Amino acid sequence: MFIRIKRVKNSQGKVREYLLLVESQRVKGKVRQRTIANLGRVDLYVQTEAADILVEKLQEYTKKKQLMDMAKSQCDWSKEYGIVGVVRRLWQDLGLDEFFRGYLSKYGYQVNYKECLLAMVTARFMNKPCSERATERWMKEVYDPQWEGLQRHHFYRALDFLHAHKADLEKDLFTKTTDLFSQKLDLIMFDTTTIKYWGEGDSAKDLLNYGHSKEKRNDLKQMIVGVLMTKEGYPVGCETLPGNAADVKSFMNMVKKIRTRFQIGKLIWVCDRGMICRSNLKELNDLGQEYILGVKMRQFDKDKKEKLLSLRGVKEVRKDLYVKEVYIEGEGRYIVCYNPFEAKRQREKRKAFKRYLRKKVNTATLKEWVVKNGYKKYVNFEGSVSINEQKIKDESQYDGKWILLTNTTLPQKEVALQYKGLWEIEAGFRDLKQDLDASPIYHWKERRIIAHVFVCFLALLIKIAFEKKLRALDPKVDYVEVWQAVKQIKAVKLSSGPQEII
To answer: Less Cβ crowding at N or C end of the chain, within 10 Å?
Structure first.
């Protein structure tokens, strides 16, 4: 349909113009025009507001009216919405919404601390500063109607609520994110990181201490955070320990707490070399726990090195893995693993190091070697400075090898593959430690410090769940690209006269 102007000459000879609403039709293969309505004289439309009234009335019968109104509307604000919606959905899928709703209804809390915690976790997930004050400011930049009215003091109370139900929540999460209860066998990996403390409070004396800082900040008090991760890569537990506790002690504390808190039938602990000492091995055996542990090859005496580091008897598992089993009386069952590709890479690396060292020997003064050089063990200082060729040659016996100690009855092939698979997960711990960065922390009270760290742990869980869902949809998907695309989704408030649209 379209508008057509028809000119007609009247009896006085004047030409009048009329508006016609015309429809085109095809009749017997030919286009014919049919007048649907005569809308009146054109000059009358010009002299009056009849055209505007007609258009306004017709708009009531079109679906495009709202779009036309929006074209004339004003944008009051634009806020982030995409990430908030994604985190809320993951929060529900992981059962967190259900868990917190149950705790709130059971104990009759008046404030919806569930939404406070979701807001703090979302802020942490978006790599925003995660202090409660910063979260309150950040909420003004995002859109979620359920967060209206939340204030800073609600966040502090929410941390107290989280600390009170931390044990219950970990148990519920453990059940939700793993299938340990339905399996006879599973593996858990354990690692620790240190978190520095910037506050000046002294109410957490049992938790905050000076210790060996993995962040090289020995001037600050710290705490140790231990994280449990399944072989599928899900973090399932988080424990906060005193800052001066050693990793080996932290490990045994975690083992005992896990045995007490979760009713697990059979579990194999997989840990790296820094977690184990002789007393830990004895305790694990006394507790009836099975383990696959990496051991330090350089701690063996000459006889053990000859037995363990020799490649005689190794069997191929796959092209990048050869294994053999060695039993040593009084110590247990060792699995020797060898990767020929890694051995070649280490040989090339050592050749490059030797060239660098030779150059250093020729140019560095004795004072520089004594004061700040980190390669002194590979250099002789008798008379003149020279390379210790034997020391460098001895390093070749470790190329491409790692050694495991286990008390399981798993075949040697299975032990090596399980550890190698979790060794790859250990690379993910580097990201985990970065994502778990809870600094800066200024809380004074121990319970709020612990709850603050657990908020960061929940954000880490959300991130890993997000990545795994993306991988399930498309293994080749780029997490960063999806992240950036979701961040572009905004909530916009438009106003047109008295009407508002969000």
So the answer is: N
Over residues 123-165, the pLDDT tens digits come to: 888 766 567 788 888 888 889 999 988 888 888 899 999 989 8
Alpha-carbon distance values, 102 to 96, 112, 113, 421 (Å): 10, 12, 12, 37
| pLDDT for 193 | 74
Residue type, 46: V
* Whether 448 contacts 159, CB under 8 Å: yes
Per residue in 99-121, pLDDT (tens digit) is 888 888 877 676 788 999 999 99
Of 142, 342, 181, give the one whose Cα is nearest residue 267.
181
Cα radius of gyration rounded to whole Å, the chain: 35
**CB distance 357 to 406 below 8 Å:** no
Asked whether the CA dihedral 67, 71, 74, 76 is positive or negative, the reply is positive
Question: What pLDDT, on a 0 to 100 scale, did the predictor assign at position 494?
Answer: 76
Is 26 strand, coil or helix? strand
pLDDT for 261-276, tens place per residue? 665 656 777 777 666 6
DSSP characters for 321-351?
EEEEEEEETTTEEEEEEE-HHHHHHHHHHHH
For the record, the structure tokens of 471 come out as 């991988």
Q: Count Cβ atoms below 10 Å from residue 254 Cβ, excluding itself.
A: 21
- Measured N-to-C along each axis, helices 152-164 and 446-473 cross at an angle, to the nearest 10 degrees, of 90
Helix (H, G, I), strand (E, B) or coil at 1: coil
Whole-number pLDDT of residue 316: 92
**Average of per-residue pLDDT across 290-311:** 87
Which uninterrupted H or E stretch holds 99? helix 96-107
Residues in the chain: 502
- Residues 242, 223 contacting (CB under 8 angstroms): yes
Does residue 386 sit in helix, strand or coil?
strand
CB of 55 closer than 8 Å to CB of 482: no
Q: Which long-range contacts (CB under 8 A, 24 or more apart) does 101-105 make?
A: 103/161, 103/165, 103/168, 103/169
CA-to-CA distance for 88 and 118, rounded, in angstroms? 8
Q: What are phi and psi of 46, to 5 degrees?
A: -70, -40
Q: Does residue 399 sit in helix, strand or coil?
A: coil
Query: What is the Cα–Cα distance from 404 to 296, expressed in whole angstroms?
Result: 9
Summarised one tens digit per residue, pLDDT across range 434-473 is 655 555 566 678 888 888 888 888 888 888 888 888 888 8
Do the beta carbons of residue 5 and residue 35 sit within 8 Å? Answer: no
